[in-house]
Amino acid sequence: MTRVARPGTGPTMIRRRLRLRDMPMILMYHSVASVGADPNSLCVTPDRFAEQMAWLDRNGLRGVSVGTLLARMRAGRARGLVGITFDDGYQAIMETALPELSSRGFSATVFVISGLIGGTNRWDEGPSWPLVTADQVRVLAAAGFEIGSHSVSHPRLADLPADRLHAEVAGSRADLRALSGADVRGFAYPYGSMDAAARAAVRKAGFDYACAVQTSWADLGLWALPRVYIGQRDTAARLAGKRLLNRGRIALRGARS
Ligand SMILES: [Zn+2]
């Protein structure tokens, strides 16, 4: 009997294997900050974030970057790991999330917008918040956080013309590699917006994986990893519920989309 299933044989193997029952829980955050107005529900206060991380700790779970999570899945050693992600790269996380995670020995992936380094979330209607600077990207990388790409300018990638798609995906990877001095293996679709062309562009640009938000059954895999939104209302009790329902929710939404 021949089986070509060695651990660590790269993304292809894991894509083949990535079934619903193997699907890990990946938390999606944007910012951790106390702000006045948050119409798009992007922030979790530092106290709430600490409560959520303490809940993981109490339950024997460890927060890691998505890159680490996938590597551990390939090795068959992902039990007890939960992916933690931050989209957009808000500066606030430097003072809030980073110390909270580091103090627990946790890590995370920060998906940065390469064309808006040191800029603001100008694509959003709502309050303007600063995004990480080049120095802060390097600080995050040095602290063991995975730097992923969140495109060059935060457009919706579905239906984007091919040349712009290429520039947004491959261009951001090259820029972030140069900036962070590290390889950039992960991508997160802005607004969770993607189609087959976007997934192909991410694969062709050399990324190992891409995070979506919701994923249809057909798309579920390394190029469309579903994540669970975590917000200010997510107390420890609600997190426990979200953990229990994680696979059921992926299945339900996958069937609907
Ligand atoms: Zn975003």
Give helix % range: 25-40%
Largest sheet: 6 strands, parallel
Task: Please state the overall shape, judged from the principal axes of the Cα atoms.
Answer: globular
Write the H/E string, N to C. Answer: HEEEHEHEHEHEHEHEEH
Low-confidence runs of at least 5 consecutive residues: 1-10
Task: Based on the coordinates given, report the CATH architecture.
Answer: Alpha-Beta Barrel
Number of strands: 10
Bound molecules: zinc ion
Based on secondary structure, the structural category is alpha/beta
In short:
The protein has 257 residues and is an alpha/beta fold. The protein is 37% helix and 14% strand.
Can you give a write-up of this model?
With 257 residues, the chain is of the alpha/beta class. The protein has a single domain, classed as TIM Barrel (Alpha-Beta Barrel). Helix content is 37%, strand content 14%. The chain has eight helices and ten strands. Helix 5 links the parallel strand 6 and strand 7. Helix 6 (162-180) runs parallel beside helix 7 (196-204). The N and C termini lie far apart (39 Å). The model is unreliable at 1-10 (pLDDT under 50). Residues 87-88, 150, 154, 190 line the site of zinc ion. Zinc ion binds next to strand 5.
